[in-house]
Amino acid sequence: MTHSKIILTIAAVLTLTACADKNPAVASLTIKVTPPADYSASETIHLVGSFNDWALEGDQAYPLSTDKGELSTTIPVTEKNVFFTLVKNKNWQLMPANEMAKSQCIYLHQATGDDAEMAVHIPLWTGDKPLKTAEPSLSGNIVQHKDFTLPQFARSSDIDVYLPKSYQHNPDKTYPVLYMLDGQNIFNAQSAHSDEWRIDELLEQLTAAGTLDEMIVVAVPNSVHRWVEYNPWDFKDRDGKAAQGQGELTIRSIKDTLKPFIDSSYRTKPQSANTGLAGSSLGGLMAIYAALAHSDTFGFTAAFSPALAVENMHGKNVLFEAIKQQQTIGNSKIYFDMGQMEYGNYEQIEQLNSLLLKQGFQAENLKLVKDDLGRHCEVDWSRRFPGALKWLQAGI
After folding, report:
1. Are 159 and 183 in contact (CB under 8 A)?
2. Does residue 133 belong to any structural domain of this protein?
């Protein structure tokens, strides 16, 4: 080998070494899983998450393997926050549930840059028979109105009303009212689909500490037709078929029937500036719709992780199209948020914010929160609730 070639070879080695120093070995996360007691070796369990684009098939799939009776798998950690869950038999309907057979939130691992282990216990899969019954978890003064008639849907619904601590002791005081959709998840672990929001506990603590002002909260549960009743516009359903949204009827059931009852039964501040609507996911879509179409009733709204993937039969985003066509802009305050993992980035929620501003909403009436740790579940919506309500209460 000539002298020049030796020099070039040494230079190449030094370059590779320098590159290696700049790109250290990727850290790993080993996830060890304790499956339900009736687990069978014939079942498959796959780990899916942000690290593999939630893939169940192909080269990106991560099936759990058994080693000395322990189920585990190891994944590379290339991002600060790793979101993941587990799927049984490649069926998205079979995911981790707690002992009450209620679905659990997506798991979160916050990386430190070092190799790590994480233990996950799965009591049940969604759809399994519960191991125990969920206990009631109501706190404070909650009045339950059983079988409240909603003529808009020709059915009845159980309505729960949270009254502030001072309500019984201060008969001259009146209160703002917040209506919350998916009401079965708001106060009570027993009725919640998965986790509850714990709004009663939060308000008891935060109003006692003076962090939040007192208000009445009315929990309005959904029906088995939630997908239709929480869509304000006609849309393309999960099977690609045209579906007629009944979201307007849902708002009318609150505006024309429930709100007059609440205002006549309790000491409320009935004006629109003191009346709010909040919801998550499709309920968040409804909250934004209320601000667009019913600002005369709802002066403030909160949309937690609003559903931003609903399309019409032309493949257009139903919410974005509605905003573009909005003729009049009310004075409603809108809080809306999103977790980064929910859509993989913040592009859609930023587009929503831009469209609202372009259409005439005042910047001071909009509050966008981006949550890098946010997941699509009640646990994180509850965590963001105090901040949302504190901003909305300003000026009430």
Report:
1. yes
2. no
In this prediction, residue 91 has a pLDDT band, given cuts at 50, 70 and 90, of very high
N residues, the chain: 396
Pairing of strands 62-63, 45-49: antiparallel
Which ranges in the chain belong to alpha helices (H)?
3-22, 199-208, 226-229, 247-252, 259-265, 282-293, 318-325, 340-343, 347-359, 378-393
Cβ atoms of residues 101 and 127 within 8 Å: yes
Residue 341 resides in a domain: yes
Position 75 in a domain: yes
On whether both 64 and 203 belong to a single domain, the answer is no
Query: 117 and 239: one domain?
Result: no
Q: What six digits make up the tokens of 123?
A: 């009591």
pLDDT in tens, 157-176: 999 999 999 999 999 999 99
In a domain, 18, yes or no: no
User: Regarding predicted confidence, which is higher, 71 or 24?
Assistant: 71
Same domain for 202 and 81, yes or no, is no
Output the domain CATH number for residue 36.
2.60.40.10
Q: Report the Cα 371 to chain-centroid distance in Å.
A: 11
115 and 60 share one domain? yes
Q: Give the count of domains, the chain.
A: 2
Amino acid identity, position 331: N
d(CA 278, CA 157) in angstroms, rounded, equals 18
Q: With the CA atoms of 10, 11, 17 and 20 taken in that order, what torsion angle do they form, in degrees rounded to the nearest 10?
A: -140
189 and 277 inside one domain: yes
Structure tokens at 69: 């009776």
Judgement on whether residues 186 and 111 belong to the same structural domain of the protein? no
Average of per-residue pLDDT across 15-27: 52
pLDDT value for 24: 55
What is the per-residue pLDDT across 262-278, written as a single tens digit (0 to 9) for each?
A: 999 999 999 999 999 99
Residues 212 and 270 both lie in one domain: yes
Residue 98 pLDDT level (bands cut at 50, 70, 90)? very high
Q: What pTM was computed for the model? A: 0.92
238: exposed, middle or buried (C-beta count within 10 Å: 0-12, 13-18, 19+)? exposed
Range(s) of the domain holding residue 90: 26-125
Cβ atoms of 206 and 168 closer than 8 Å: no
Q: How far apart are CA 348 and CA 318, in angstroms?
A: 13
